[in-house]
Design goal:
The complex is a heterodimer of chains A (439) and B (300). Helix content of chain A is 18%, strand content 33%. Chain A is α+β, with helices and mostly antiparallel strands and 439 residues long. Chain A folds into three domains: 11-221, P-loop containing nucleotide triphosphate hydrolases (Rossmann fold), CATH 3.40.50.300; 228-314, Beta Barrel (Elongation Factor Tu (Ef-tu), domain 3), CATH 2.40.30.10; 320-423, Translation factors (Elongation Factor Tu (Ef-tu), domain 3). In chain A, β11 and β12 form a beta hairpin. In chain B, the strands form two sheets. Chain B has a six-stranded mixed β-sheet with strand order 3-2-1-4-6-5, with helices on both faces. Chain B has a four-stranded antiparallel β-sheet with strand order 8-7-9-10, with no helix packed on it. The radius of gyration of chain B is 19 Å and the shape is globular. Chain B starts with 7 loop residues before the first helix and ends with a helix. The mean pLDDT of chain B is 90. Classes of the chains: A alpha+beta (439), B alpha/beta (300).
């Protein structure tokens, strides 16, 4: 039985991607089914719909395709989240669609993932979609990748075919800066090497898919270098009677990087004023230190100008604070990105106005090669752009910190989220002794 | 392995606190939907964790269908008082009297009628955001829900046109008349909720624990016999030892036969369960797309 009363030690978030009919939803259904995470009423509901639409065959994909249009068209429209647990770990799956037009959903599902599973149809081999998905995983800097070579039953469990596909993948992997990539031969439909080892692959010595998901080391995925606290909310009780609470002024937020300790010197940006951590307040009592991604409330020893959108940082590793930004963006809206148009840019807890000053190039998402500057970026394009913001942004490069190096663009008027952005490392770092950049 | 490590409940907790604080930071007039059920009990604790030592910066809102379990309402009122929170209650009954909610001929369930009542309350108080306790693991349509779920000026959810949610950056911008529903427990499972209740030593309404109750068998479920649901001629009333696993209205909530009378027992029972939580809700069983249809109309 999964999800026992013993506490699973941690959570692994992963997403599955592949093109239409690679069997993603079937794979997830298989993981849930074979790990006994499916309940009788869910299986009954599946059997009911199988009788109506499936000619009696249970369709595991119906488990995740929750919307009517999806079941009718047999496709996955949107990111669906699924949950299951084994005695070793809890899992959050983002099932992301494979259609080209839904790349934005893949970015959505993958952005918070520790691991991506790219499905490849053993008959078709590495196709453009496989490259796209792998490149997106690499751009988003997902720490771990599994290439699940599916439908191995349809190629007679050929070891040679498996190696061909692996070699093809490994040809373009060096360009992608992916450190942990693993290949697993599976049949999602029949369950081979998904939860239980397959009798058909004596030539494959590695773990099953679930075995690997349970074992992969994710402890170091969080950033513990360079303290960053984006201030979400200023905590001021203004209590009329209690003098301690009357003067209490705390800065609440989720630590986006590093470790903070009581007595540590910190810098509040953009104010540019240094102070000392007097107290780390939590509902469960004060603590001596706190780390990413904990949510805390900091009390500083000076009464300084800090509000929502400010960032409190450690002095050992400094961010940039600039109005001229350089970033990769994934465009997510039908209305293309236009040079000169104003957007809202949301970064940590801070929203500023931004204008796109230049589209430098589009990135060929199957090779990661830059292509000559286009006039605009269309839906699902990924490009390198330059932006100018109305106020300086306190940030890190995305490669150094996923949380302080990422942003979204919001269209003014419709409020649609139109882009996901990953910042390049700042050219210059903040100098704590000078506040010259302040405007 | 270093000491800087969060277990799964701590992860879910910090994610939910972050979401709560985003609501406080981004919205003018947010509210928190509090029914007294187990999910909203967790929400309240998370609100304390997000905002103390300040007072909660948002009122609690409950739509009372008139078909609530009395134990639930008692608990709701007591808990709000303990926390010093402002509790706003709006009743389906009143909405019907005012013509805001109109029952179909012969419609007994208040399930659908909650929707106009809620939308009316949102308008009355000009709430721009409501925090709710829905979880993605409850149901297939909910599995597609965002943390920040945009509703147009009719309160409708458009599943095909949702805002992408990337990293932990939530787009909270809305125009006047539009509304946001926010679900901090999106990534929690039923098991997580109970484990959190145990870890935080949270009180829950007594009906979650085993008790004796007269029930009748209808459509494969044990329904509690009350004034609202008298036995039909020929139906046999059985006095059973039951509890609720999920709480809906008293006329549609299936009682589960169970001896579980502590949180530990409940956790053990869920771990061994072979049906989902919503398997005991008659309102979700009407069709495969029942929840999707209600969500589109403005349901939680």
């Amino acid at each position: 039985m999964p999800a026992s009363t013993q506490h699973p030690v941690d959570i692994l978030r992963f997403n599955t991607c592949g093109s239409v009919d690679d069997g993603k939803s079937t794979l997830i259904g298989r993981l849930l089914y074979d790990s006994k995470s499916l309940m009788e009423d869910q299986i009954e509901a599946l059997e009911r719909s199988a009788d109506i639409t499936g000619g009696g065959q249970i369709n595991l994909a119906n488990l995740t395709d929750g919307l009517r249009a999806e079941r009718e068209q047999g496709i996955t429209i949107d990111v669906a989240y699924r949950y299951f647990a084994t005695p070793r770990r809890k899992f959050i799956i983002a099932d992301t669609p494979g259609h080209v037009q839904y790349t934005r959903n893949m970015v959505t599902g993958a952005s918070s993932a520790n691991l991506s599973v790219v499905l490849v149809d053993a008959r078709a081999g590495v196709i453009e979609q496989s490259r796209r998905h792998t490149c997106i995983a690499s751009l988003l800097r997902i720490p771990h990748l599994i290439v699940a070579v599916n439908k191995m039953d349809l190629v007679g469990w050929s070891e040679e075919r498996f190696h061909e596909i692996r070699d093809e993948f490994e040809e373009f992997l060096p360009r992608l800066d992916m450190k942990d990539v693993r290949f697993i031969p599976i049949s999602a439909l029949n369950g081979d090497n998904v939860v239980d080892p397959s009798p058909h692959t004596p030539w494959y010595p590695g773990p099953t898919l679930l075995g690997h998901l349970e074992a992969v080391h994710i402890g170091s995925d969080w950033n513990l270098n360079g303290f960053r606290l984006p201030v979400q909310w200023v905590n001021r009780p203004n209590h009329p009677q209690n003098p301690r609470l009357h003067d209490f002024r705390g800065f609440s937020g989720q630590i986006a990087g590093g470790i903070v300790r009581v007595g540590q010197k910190v810098l509040a940006l953009p104010a540019g004023i240094t102070s000392t951590v007097q107290e780390i307040w939590t509902f469960d009592g004060p603590v001596r230190e706190a780390f990413c991604p904990q949510s805390v409330t900091l009390v500083l020893s000076h009464d300084i100008d800090v509000s929502r959108g400010s960032m409190i940082i450690g002095l050992d590793s400094l961010p940039g604070a600039e109005t001229e930004l350089h970033a990769n963006v994934c465009w997510m809206h039908q209305r293309p990105l236009q040079r000169g148009k104003k957007y809202f840019l949301k970064h940590t807890a801070n929203t500023v106005q931004a204008v796109v000053s230049e589209i430098e190039h589009r990135i060929n998402i199957t090779t990661l090669e830059p292509e000559p500057a286009p006039a605009e970026l269309a839906l699902n394009d990924i490009g390198e752009i330059r932006l100018r913001t109305a106020k300086p942004l306190v940030y890190d490069g995305y490669a150094a910190n996923r949380l302080t190096g990422s942003f979204i663009l919001i269209e003014q008027g419709t409020n649609a989220t139109v882009a996901a952005g990953m910042l390049k490392a700042p050219r210059e770092l903040v100098k704590p002794e000078s506040a010259d950049y302040m405007i | 392995m270093n000491g800087y490590h969060l277990d799964h409940l701590q992860h879910l907790e910090t994610e939910a606190i972050h979401v709560m604080r985003e609501v406080a930071g981004e919205f003018e007039r947010p509210a928190l939907l509090f029914s007294g059920g187990k999910d909203s009990i967790c929400l309240l604790r998370l609100a304390e964790k997000a905002f103390r030592p300040s007072e909660l910066p948002l009122p609690l809102l409950n739509v009372d269908t008139g078909h609530h379990f009395p134990e639930l309402n008692e608990f709701r009122d007591r808990r709000a008082k303990e926390l010093g929170a402002k509790l706003i209650i709006r009743r389906v009954e009143d909405a019907i009297a005012r013509g805001v909610a109109v029952p179909a001929p012969g419609e007994i369930s208040r399930n659908r009628l909650q929707i106009p009542t809620l939308l009316d309350a949102i308008e009355e108080f000009r709430f721009d955001c409501c925090i709710g306790g829905a979880r993605r693991d409850e149901e297939k349509a909910r599995a597609k829900e965002r943390f920040f779920s945009f509703r147009d000026s009719f309160g409708q959810w458009d599943p095909k046109n949702q805002r992408p949610e990337i990293w932990n950056l939530y787009n909270a911008r809305i125009n006047p008349g539009e509304n946001m529903r926010v679900f901090p427990l999106s990534n929690w499972t039923e098991m997580d909720v109970w484990e959190y209740i145990r870890r935080e030593r949270l009180a829950v309404p007594s009906i979650y624990f085993s008790h004796r109750r007269p029930c009748v068998r209808r459509q494969g479920q044990w329904l509690p016999v009350t004034d609202l649901l008298p036995p039909k001629p020929g139906e046999i009333v059985r006095e059973l030892v039951v509890r609720v696993r999920t709480i809906g209205d008293i006329i549609s909530t299936g009682m589960v036969e169970s001896p579980a009378d502590s949180v530990d027992d409940i956790i053990a029972e869920i771990a061994a369960a072979r049906v989902t939580e919503r398997g005991s809700r008659a309102d979700d069983r009407s069709s495969e797309a029942a929840m999707e249809d209600r969500k589109k109309a403005g349901y939680f």
